Every structure is written in C-alpha cells, then in structure tokens.
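New to this. Please check both lines:
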Amino acid sequence: MTTTTGSTDQAFTLPFRLTLVVQAVAALVFGLAPIALLSTYAPAIGFSGTDPLIYRLGGAATIGYLVAPVVALAARDGWRHLRIPAIATLTFTLGALAASLWEFGRGGRQPVIVAVIVAGAAFSLVAAYWLRRDKGPAINPGRPLGTPARAVLALAVVSAGTFGLLPLLVPGLFASVFGLIGANAWVYRVAGAACLGYATAGIASLMAPGYSPIRLQNMAAIAFNAVGAASAWRAIFVGGGGLLAPIVAAAATFFTVALVWIDRKYAA
C-alpha cells in the first residue's frame, strides 16, 4: 500500500499529516470510550446511557475513522489511497454537525454538543478542502473487483445507508421499530452519521477502477463491522439491544468475513 513520496502528493504535506493525527486522536477518544467505559462516558457527556448498543455501535463506527489515519501514517499512504476515507470523513462530520445544530436549536446545551458543532464544522471544512484540491499522482489501481465482491460492497452500501439515515433523520421511529427506548436522540443521530460515512465511501469504492484505492477504506469497514458484531453479540447475551442486536450481529458478522475475504483475494 505504500506509495512514492513527493511534492506532488498532498498527503505528504505537514498540514495533511497533522490532519490525520488530529482525526486519529478524536476517533480514539470517541470510538473507544463508549465501548470500554460506557457507564462513565455517557454521564460525562451529559446523557443517560440508555440503549447502550447504540452508544457502542456509534463507537464501533468511529473506530473505523481511527483505523484509516493510523494505517495511512504507518504505511505512508498517498492521497489516492486516502481519498475514499476522506469522503467517509466528510459525510460523518457533516452529519454530526447537522445533528448537533438541530439538537442545539431544540435546547440541547451539553458541552459535547457545542464541541461537536465546532469540531464538525472544522473537520468538514478541512476534508472538503483536501477533496477539492485532490492533488496526488496516479497509482496502479490493482485488480478490478469481480461480481461477488461488488455484490458484497453493494449490500454493504444498502446496510450502511439504512442504518445511517434512519437514526440520523428519524431516531424516534428507528428506536420504536427495533424495540429500543429511544432516549438521547442526539446519540442516535451522531451514530447514524458515523455509519452513513461508510455508505458514501462504499459508493465511491464501487466506482473505483481496482482494489488499491479501496483497500484502506475496506480495512476501516472491517474494523467497524468486527467491533459492531462483538457489541451486538454482547447485547444479545446481556440484554439492552432489542430487535436491533440480532440483526446487527448477523449482518456485521457477515460483512466482517466477506470484507476480509475481499481483502485477501484482491490485495495480492
């Protein structure tokens, strides 16, 4: 996955690398905390912690936004490998910004909401800037995806789009359909925004000429699905996941295996 460095690739500029570091730190905090420290995390940000599966799935989705910058920094990936993850990031931050502005307008004054408004606006502007600049040398696209792999990605887009848009736009209805309590709509909306980023990145992946520019985002999606599957299976055994837990457990387990298969088949 390593590319040749050079002044023509924006991914090797100091501002871009700093962007990756900041994203990794933010994703580390907001990804791991709701999974490992939910009983402390929820009250610390001013919420009740009901529907713990939603918190953990939001954390699982956010972990994917940690994987992409960390791997990119370690492997010295260039812009053409990072472009699709940047699309995911822009989708996530715009969605989180919109969710936080909506909650603030309805009276939500928790400090985390204000922080996400500021951070969401900043990250959205930065991601949009790099995507608009779009400066990086062409790379070998690698092997084109076959029909089974493309079918998996298409299913992943539908899944991420469904479980992204519904909690983002209609969290109350989403909770009702899946047998959840439905408190703390802002948590639902932000978790949905994080999931929605994988849908837009999946569409971009389906349009890519080969696996090489897709691989980094695929690794992020594997991490998301693996942690999401573990969270859902946990909810099945300890409770608190409603109908959502078995559905996510089955879907995320399938996508984890299928996306790993794609990587093993096309990365060589």
